[in-house]
Amino acid sequence: MQLAFYAPMKSPDHPVPSGDRSIARSLVAALGHMGAKVTVPSRLRCRDGKGDTKVQAALQLAAQGEVDRLIPLGQRAGWQAWITYHNYYKAPDLIGPTVSRALGIPYLQVESTRARKRLNGPWAEFARIAEAATDAADLVFYFSTRDAIGLQENARPAQQLIHLRPFLPRSDIPSNAVGDGPMLSVGMMRPGDKLASFQIIADTLSLLADPEWQLDIAGDGPARAEVENLMSPFGSRIRFLGQLETQTLQAAYRNASLMFWPGVNEALGMVYLEAQAAGLPVVAQDRPGMREVLVPAPYPAPDQGPAGLAAVIDDLLAHPSTRRELGQTAQRHVTLNHLMPTAAETLCSGLAQTGVTL
C-alpha cells in the first residue's frame, strides 16, 4: 500500500517539537505498522497564525507550485490514498484535495475541525478552504468527541466519520511501579494556554499542605522567564529540567510520584498518555480534551480552581498505595485503548471503507 501523508500545520520531521509533530509522527508510524509505505510528499507549512491575508495569498501561491510538482510524482509513485493530518482554519490543506482528485485516489483527513464562525474576519479565506477540504474528504478520522459534533453536523451524505483514539507510537508498555520522586509537570513554555496552566500550577502549589513537596518541570520555550518568575517563591522545591529527549523524559516519568498538568484548553494532551503509560496517576482538571485520554475518574472541575487540585495532590502525596493503584489502572487503560496496534487496526479499517486494502 502506497500512501501520501501531509500535515499542513507541521511536518512530522519539523525541527521544533510539539504535540502536533508528535501526533503526525505517531500516525506515520501506525500506518507503517499496518504495512503501508508512507511518503511525506510536501513539507509546506500552511499556517497563518495572525490572520494576514497577504500571508494567506503567498501560501496559496506556494501550494499551487507544490500541486504542480506532486501530481506527476504521485502518478509515478502509485499513491493509493492521500491522508492529511490537522486541517483547520489557521492551517488548511491547500494541496491534498487537488492532488488526490487529479490522481483519482481517496482523500482522507485525521483530526479536522469545523470553524464556520471564521468564515467572516481575517481568516475567512483560509476558513473557506479548510471547510472545502473537509467537504472533499471521503473519510475523516476524529480524535475528539467534541470535534465529532461539528463534523457530523456538516458532513456531506457520503462522508464517513470514524473515531480514532489518540495513541502512543508503541506496541506495549512495561509494568512500572509509581516512583517516590518529585511531582512532574511537562509542558511547553509559551504564552497563552500553556502559560495559563503554569499559573494554575503555581497557585495550586501555594495551597499544598504537605511541607515536603517537590516539583520537576520538563519543557522550555519563549515564556520560560515568565514560568520561572511564577515559580520563584518556591525556591529549591522547583527544579527546571529543560526540554528533554525521549529517553530522558521517560526516566523522569519513572522517577516521579505523580503527573500534574491542569490542561487549559488542551486539545488532547499527549503527555497524559505518556505519563499514564509510565504508571503515573495524573492530576488534571476535568476538561473536554482530557476526557479523550485520561482514565475515567473524578477530576476537579475548572471552577474549583487551584483549591480543588491541591486537595487531590495532598491526598495522593499522603497515600502512596493510592498512587500505585491509580498508576496501575492508568497503565491498563492505555494498554487497552491507546497503543499503536489498536490505532493501526482502526486506520486499516477506515482505508478499507474507501477501497484501499493491504
UniProtKB/TrEMBL annotation:
Residues spanning the membrane: none
Keyword Transferase: yes
A Pfam family this chain is assigned to: Glycos_transf_1
Domain Glycosyl transferase family: 209-332
Entry-linked InterPro entries: Glyco_trans_1, Glycosyltransferase_grp1
Protein name, as recorded: Glycosyl transferase
Listed GO MF terms: transferase activity
Organism of provenance: Sulfitobacter pacificus
